[in-house]
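Appendix B, record 7
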Amino acid sequence: MVLKNVIISAESPFSSDAVSLIDELSECLQDITGDSGKNSFDANDVCNSRGKFVIARDQSGKAIGCGAFRPINETTAEVKRMYAKEKGIGIGNKILSYLEHQAYDMGYKTLCLETRIVNAKAVSFYERNGYKKILNYGKYAGRANSICFEKILLF
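Structure tokens (predicted):
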């Protein structure tokens, strides 16, 4: 089954739906990696003209996923807090594609991200979506349990 009617829009990362989705993601990450990822996301980083937080909703308006990006520099943004409540039905693909187009429209040339190597589903998801492994950057440099990716935005 693929979910066809997904509505994605920019929303506050402080809304009740956003907080619920982020908390669910943190629980999933804690179970998979042993780390919730909470220390790697500051909601204020996506509340500016160069960042974005989005929520995906089904046709009834129920929040079913989220994602964000924050600026790294003038041409690169970092994907953060990607989450889909249901796996395998295309929600994550739709959110990521939306974020990529939004970032491109804002002038970004590249998106980068970090995930944990042990999070095999996330690693596979990003590879399927055209992300290429890069050297670990920023606070992830030298962390053997992290893997970093980037995608050049060409539309």
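Remarks on this record: Helices lie at 16-33, 91-105, 120-128. The two ends are 28 Å apart (CA to CA).
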